[in-house]
Amino acid sequence: MTRIFATLGRFSVRFRYPVVALWIAATVLSVHFFPGLSSVAKDTNSGFLPADTPSMQASKLATPFQNSDQASLTVVVSRSGGSLSAADQQTVTQVEAAVGRVAKVTSVHDLGVSRDGAAEQALVQADVAPYGNGSDQQAVVSSIRKILADHSIGGLTFNLTGELPIVVDTQQQQTSSRSSTQGLSFLFIIVLLLFAFRALLAPLVTLLPAALVLFLASPVIAAATHLGVQVSSITQFLLVVLVLGAGTDYGLFLVFRVREELRRGLDPKEAVVRAVTTVGESVTFSALTVIAALMSLVLAKFGFYQSMGPALAIGIALMLLAGLTLLPALLAIFRRAVFWPSRTRLVERPRTTIYGRIAGAVVRRPLAVAAFGVLGFAALAAGSLSSSTAGFADQSSGPAGSDSAAGSTALAAHYPAATNPSIVLLQFAQPVWDNLGAISTAEQALRASGQVGRVVGPLDPAGLALSPAHVSGLHAQLRDLPLPLAPTPPADSAVSAADYNTYLALSRFISADGRTVQLAAAPKITDTSSPAAMAMIPQLRDTVTAVAHQVGATDSGVFSLTAFAYDVSHISQSDLSRIIPIVAILIALLLAVVMRSLVAPLYLVASVLLSYLAALGLVAIVFVHLGGSAGVNFVLPFLMFVFLMALGSDYNILVMTRIREEAQSHTLAEAVRRAVGFTGTTVTTAGMILGGTFAVLAVAAGSTAGSDQVRQIGYGIAAGVLMDTFVIRTVLVPAVVATLGRWNWWPSPLFRRSAGAGTGVDTEQTPAASGDRSAAA
Description:
Layout: H1 2-14, H2 16-33, H3 54-61, E1 71-79, H4 86-100, E2 105-113, E3 119-126, H5 135-151, E4 156-161, H6 163-197, H7 202-224, H8 233-263, H9 268-295, H10 303-334, H11 354-364, H12 366-381, E5 389-390, H13 403-414, E6 422-427, H14 436-449, E7 452-456, H15 468-478, H16 497-506, E8 516-523, H17 531-535, H18 537-551, E9 555-559, H19 561-595, H20 600-626, E10 632-633, H21 635-663, H22 668-701, H23 707-740, H24 749-753, H25 767-770
């Protein structure tokens, strides 16, 4: 395998200019010809649920009230300080007619005046994809908002909210946040690299391949969606952090080794070839562990995880290719200038680094250090035992300050039953217009259950209690009118304007064929993602099923944010229990190959699991016990496991392959001291960059939709990476290696060659010996 990387290194050095030109050309062409990543991203978590979950089955029942192939928008008009006048309603009619003429708008359906008389809403359907932020979606939203803005005068306020406007507003804010994440990440990495290298050009050369891959990966992943790859909005955030963080890690592995070889006296080109030869294996297997962990997500049932796996794996694969070709080519082009003004000439006797001294102290009492470290991490891990898991669901409001958020606020003020309700769906074999007594029975049974508050349905469509006979009579008089109904009654109609407005509102509760009824039940707990709210869902579903049997409905379901959150949380927990052993086994196998050992992978995987549990406990302590959050976000344990298992193995591979390299010619204790001394700066810098970029992700999330989720992910993974960097890789793993002695290498030839060396824990080595060449890193 060493020959392969030597050949690749020589190729990249020899054809350095064509290699750089090819990468630049590929990036430019991809950006030009492939779609943008945001245009294909889904912003709904429920849309990733399997079809057989109760929430998705309820969604099918709700189809008559929705159009999954078209986008839904809601126009809300309100009068501050009074009821809508006749002139106001005439203005609403004109606005609805103008909105109906907007390109791509297929229908405008007036839903009637609110109970307090101060607001009116209309449902708009548009022939564009309900998710995404493409030009068609933006054009529809902006065109309608222009019409509404022209009529928002004299105390009459129009807002546009609903499915599509929330998506457009959210993605626009996320685009801004993503730009902030990229900018802050670049700045953070450059400052840290300047400090680590003490050189002007080295940070840019190290970061350039990762930056180029970031621009290349987005359109490539977007193009891959045509092959079945899914993308969610959070994937876009994680791609920035993962490519910049992991890509910079791989760059550090190589650049620090090049500087080390230069200080040993090699020519710059030969130093690059030697670095690729020795570090190429570490970089490759580091990337493969990340790719393996990400690709294992395709086995998850939750499409949200499936959407992250292949998409992010594509980014890491491109980063690996750039790290083994583009970065060596750049180093060969700039040569020693990369490290100016730091010293790269031959160093006869470098000074001992702090990492070498720490390793020297660890190997003198390895068993005690290992035991103390395990107990400390176990104590942190205990913090997660007393915390519950909270979920998240689709956003019901736009970002703070947006027009969609203002519209959602107006809906909540004038249509309280429309604010995050639990929609109870009942499907009947025959139209219910002549059997509305069954609906009255269903409403009473739901109220009597004590699980919901107010129940609004076809007998209370506009906040006025109606008898079944009254509703049936209205239908008998108006059922022959063409659909969709006009916002005002026909000129020759004998029905009053009030009764006609009531009949308009009925369409929200009874489907056009009369067979499906939905009832809006106000939840007792308004925090739809809280553990308490989700815990009520199974009982509510049982109650709805019993009610459906009582009134003769053939099918039933609960369609709500909380119900989706419940299903999402449970599928996530199921996926976590299934994916954990798969990822652990895959990474252990890759570690066994690169380490040529069956023993080392066992404790290396265990060490990463330990840091994962400790980081999860720390998040629970900070966010739940101290921060007051309802619980650890359901997605956090899963994402932290995948990322920490994969990224933590990067440093395992770098440190352990160097220990094995040094153990070829030194005792094991000396090999540990030298390897940690050589790699200490690399691991520390890489860990701080990777952890810092995830922390930047959390900071940049700000007040965007789902920001609490992003903050927990960012800070949680950052904490895990930093603990892995400063404790696991620097202290705990060296202690275990020194304790096991030659058994680290069983059954490789190094195990047999070390048979006479015992554990190799020779405490008589002098500091000068332990520090020989250790400053090269």
